[in-house]
Structure formats: structure tokens, C-alpha cells
Amino acid sequence: GDVPEPSPQAPLAVLSKVELRVSCKHLLDRDTLNKSDPCVLLLMQSQGQWMEVDRSEVIKSNLNPVFAKIFTVDYYFEEVQKLRFEVYDSHGQAGVGTHDDDFLGGMECTVGQIVAQKRVTKPLFLKYGKFAGKSTITIISEEISGNNGYVELAFRAKKLDDKDLFSKSDPFLEIYRIDDDRSEQLVYRTEVVKNNLSPIWEPFKVSLNSLCSCEEKRKLRCVVWDYDSRGKHDFIGEFFTTFEEMQKAMGENKVQWDCMNPKYKIKKRNYKNSGVVVLLDLKIHRVYSFLDYIMGGCQIHFTVAIDFTASNGDPRNSCSLHYINPYQPNEYLKALVAVGEICQDYDSDKKFSALGFGARIPPKYEVSHDFAINFNPDNDECEGIQGVVESYQSCLPKIQLYGPTNVAPIISKVARVAADEERTKEASQYFILLILTDGVVTDMADTREAIVRASYLPMSIIIVGVGNADFTDMQILDGDDGVLRSPKGEPVLRDIVQFVPFREFKNASPTALAKCVLAEVPKQVVEYYSYKAFPPRCPRPPSPEPSLGSPQ
């Protein structure tokens, strides 16, 4: 009967399943005599090809259908997963036609956008980007995490009926969950307390999923038996409750139930009960997943820091790592776009901080290790990934590449913003700092110190080594081989640094780089908020549908 206690440090699987529910409004009417009979197809992009994953039922004669079908998709934070929903007018036995005249409209989005917004409403488009009238499609997402924590319960009983002739009863307690089909599922059986009519059972833990399928109002049946070594246990009594009712036992309060034997109730005139069962204590231990935080409204704020030291080579020279080739983005841009494209789905304002280090900057041409590449010291944010790319390209001719490669100032700068965020005591913003550098850092001691400090804050650091330098010393920062320590020997609270040399992905697709460096982030987010014991902010109800006027 022991339930292992999930440790907050255990890495939680990044893979989750997400349920999508679909509805449409104002569909086009393709049928002359009655209304369209809509059906939705879900397609997923795989190696550039759209593949049908699943389709909904057909709803007869309805231009505002709410589909009963629930689409289930696997969710990976570190990938851009493109989805396409297509709505067709179905024709009876012939099934869903794919003729243009049966096509009621389509919509594309990513899984990341849907889980970040929880509810997405978009217009439907016909071929060639034409609006399908005022038609819209709404997708609502819900994570099937199956593990939203566990609960610790402590029961005792008083004055139970005595079922034994020569000694007292040997009681034990069983808890059953009553499922939707009325079947009963055993949740827990306590140990037997020998020869005792007022037993105190050992406290025990069960997952909320197993206790009540995470539904507080689900009915539970609790039965007390007198143990019999031959397995013919005597029924003492039972009572019904819910997890909602049990929660009244938190703190100093206790909840108690009459333990009833229905047969005695009928037979005996002044039967009161066969004893009482008391819930002495209840503790809830929640275990949240990355998606619980994202769906609770946690924003991922993305900062990129670019190395402008002289070892990159003169940007005007085609051998330079900063050379801008109109036909082929350089490694800095490739890494920035690959990682940024994923992060942008999780940031509602789509503004990214973009910093540079190791250059002499105007007007005085003094060396700076944390300047805004848009040269606006009051606001280092750029509009979207494209804004970062443009600021990068326009700042190159204005600066002088210099040195040394100091990254501690930038880590500390982002950490200051993260520390302000931490004071809100809410899971509302998490910071990812992407450092792109062509060499081993010069200020290793200060960097180690800054990382140890940052490990106590809501932030993660990704370092991508660009070019062909020897990055052996950088592996120290990625705590995978052992625990990173500050120069004074203080260990990091959690491993927040991921280092990869870009050259290992030179011939792979950009998505492979993003996958590798972002795979750890969901675990790091959960570790931080678990350590802080910050729950997700109240899961936002999906926002009301925005009214969509007629397309411009």
C-alpha cells in the first residue's frame, strides 16, 4: 500500500499530451437546400508535408458547429509543431469531399500558440488567402498531465462495533473511487489495527488522479472491515464522501462521518451508527508540469546576447563570423532565429531584449560588455525575431569589435530583472538568456559566480559556441559533468546552463539546434517554481472570443 513520494527534483517528462476541442462560427453555406454539414480535418506538418492526423464527426446542417470529437496531440516545447485545421462540407456516404466547392476554409497555427493562449480564435481562409466570409474557428486546449499532485490523509475511528466473540474487532479501512460508469476502483487499503475499537491508522499518500481523477466532487465510498485471517472479513460499516468534503480537515479542523451498516439501520429501531470515522489531517502536495505554468499565464521572456569581440574577424571580410552574406545567414543569425522562433510563441508581447558585449560603441567608443544593439539604453527590446535581426545588421557598421569576452555583466543584468520578478512571488515571468559567443569566456570566475546567483532566480542560460574555437573550457559551465560551483565553492541551486557548439549542428536543420538547447528548459522552469513553492497563477479561463469584424 506504500505510494512512493514524487520528489520535486525528479525530472518531469517534457512530453505531454494536449487535448484540442474545436468549434466554428458563421461557416459558409455551400448547400442549396439546407445548411452545410461540416467536418474538421486536423493535419500536422512532418518533413514539410501536411499529413492528416485525425478528423471530427460530421455535424448535420449547422453553420456554428461545436464538435464533440477531442483531438489529442503530443506536445514538445522544443519544437515548432505546425497544425492545420480544414473544414469541409460533407456529403453523406461519399464522406468528406476535398473538392474546392466543399472546402469551407482552413487555418494554420502551432501547438505552442494554442497552449500559450489556451483558446485561439482565428478567421478561416479559402484558397489563395481569401477570407471565407466571416467564418472563424476556435480551438481550446487542455493538458492531460495526469499528475497534479498527491494528498496525504490520516484517519482514525471511534467506538466501532465489536464483531469478535473473545476479543475486539481488528479494523481496517478501504477507500473506493466511484467512476462515471458507477464501477468502483480501489484507491487505498489501510493496515489492520489488531484488537481495537478506536483504531488510529497510519497516514498515507495517494495521487489526486487516483483518489478522485482530479475531480473534487467525485463520490468516494469508504468501508470499514473487521479483518479475518481466512479472508472472510466482516463488514462493520461504510460512509460516502468527496475530496471536496475531506478538504475541510485542513489545519486544526477534523471531519467525521457516521460509519453505517444499512442492514442494521433497517432492522434496529434506535440504531445510530456502527462507530464514527474521523479524518484527522489532510495535506495536499501539488506537482505541476511546465504546461500548468504556461497555461497559468507564465510568460517566457527571451534575451539574446551577441559576442562582438575582435576574434570574430572584421565584419566586412567574408571570413568573419559576423559577415553579412545576402544569400546565406551567418552562424550568429542561424542560432538566434532557430532558438528565438520557439520562444516567441510563449511571449505575448513578442518583444525581445537584444544585447551585445566586447565592442567599442559610439559615441565615445569605450568598450562595453552589456550594450543594447538598438543603441537605446532605456529600452533594449526589439519587435520580434525580425527586429533583433535588423538591429544586429544595422549595428555592425557602427561598432568596433574589441574584447575581452566578458559575459558576467550580461548574466547579472538579466538576473537583476529576474530578481525583480521573483519578488512578485508569482509564476508570471521566466527569463531565457541566449549567449552567442565565438570563444571561451575571459571572466570565468565572475561568470561562475553570476551563474550560481542566477540559479536562485527564474532564469535559464543557453550558450551557443559559434565558429571553430576550442570550447573545452566552456563545458565546465554546463553542469552536466558535475556540479558547477562559484570560485568560493558554493554550488548552483539547479543546473541552468546548457552549452552547445554550433558546429555540431552545422549540417543539421535549424530545428535540431533548437531542440537540443531548449529540451532542458521545461524541467528547469518546473524545478525553479517547485523549489520556490510557487503554484501556477490561477489557470486563466480561456479569454472570451474577440469579436472579429468583417475582414479588411
From TrEMBL:
Transmembrane segments: none annotated. Pfam families: C2 (PF00168), Copine (PF07002). It comes from Phainopepla nitens (Phainopepla). GO terms for molecular function: calcium-dependent phospholipid binding. Residues 1-124, 131-258 form the C2 domain. GO terms for biological process: cellular response to calcium ion. It comes from the Eukaryota. The lineage of its organism: Eukaryota, Metazoa, Chordata, Craniata, Vertebrata. GO terms for cellular component: plasma membrane. Belongs to the copine family. This is CPNE7 protein. Residues 301-500 form the VWFA domain. Keywords: Repeat.
